[in-house]
Amino acid sequence: MTALKRCKACGLIINESKIKDLCPACGVPKITFEPYTERVSLNRKRLLDLHMHPIMVHIPQALISLLPLMVAGHILLPERYGIAFLHTATVLSALLPVSAAATVVSGMLDGRIRFKKITTPYLKQKMLIGGIMLLMTVGMAAIAVTSGFVGFYVPLYLGLNALCLLCQYLLGTIGVQLMFSVLPG
Ligand code: HEM
User: Fold this and answer.
1) Distance between CA atoms of 100 and 170, rounded to whole angstroms?
2) Is residue 157 a contact partner of residue 144, using CB atoms and an 8 Å limit?
């Protein structure tokens, strides 16, 4: 097993055998590297390196950003294009709570691996905000599937979408802080 080294300038952790003259991340001379001992067991490291949650979060983020455009397209474009936007918005809205649920579950799994429990203050906040967001995505899916985006359902739907965007901002702000913290062992 080749030794690990850490760049004191940028924090990059890399196998000693892969270091050439410069740090491949920040370009400082290789003299800047120091020995590094992995603090997390191999199994936990392998699971964290799957990046389940950081990958998963992008799906509800993309849907929540795209859906208002789909609804606008349905309302503003000529009927033969608007109908395509309507169907797309309906299908994507139905997928939204599924992706949000998978994001919440993957976050709880990653949180459990990182901190060996999920009852920490930040993780509890994330479960609360994530749960509220999940409920709102179910509401959006119900509106999309039942209403066909007519009348006051449109502002209600867009209002829920805006609140989901706020939840994602809060979840991301906490999440980014958790990215670089882990309990050893
Ligand atoms: C829909 C709900 C959620 C969203 C949108 C969300 C969003 C995010 C984002 C944007 C990050 C930073 C990832 C990056 O920068 O690549 C993150 C990280 C993280 N989140 Fe969430 N989160 C959600 C729910 C949860 C829940 C319920 C938990 C746990 C109880 C959680 C635990 C974590 C952890 C531990 C990290 C650090 C990276 C990791 O180990 O995966 N998240 N989250």
Assistant:
1) 15
2) yes
Whether the Cβ atoms of residue 144 and residue 94 lie closer than 8 Å to each other: yes
Coil/strand/helix, residue 38? coil
Torsions phi, psi of 14, nearest 5? -150, 155
pLDDT tens-digit series, residues 51-86: 999 999 999 999 999 999 999 999 899 988 999 999
102 and 12 within one domain: no
Adjacency order of strands within the sheet including 4-7: 13-15, 4-7, 33-36
Q: Are residues 72 and 31 both part of a single domain? A: no
In the chain, how many domains are there? 2
| CA–CA gap between residue 97 and residue 112 (Å, rounded) | 22
Instruction: Indicate whether residue 97 lines ligand 1 (CB < 6 A).
Output: no
- CB of 56 sitting under 6 A from ligand 1: no
Q: How many CA atoms lie within 13 A of 53 on its CB side?
A: 22
Look up the domain containing 64 and give its range: 45-178
What separation in Å is there between the alpha carbon of 155 and the centre of ligand 1? 28
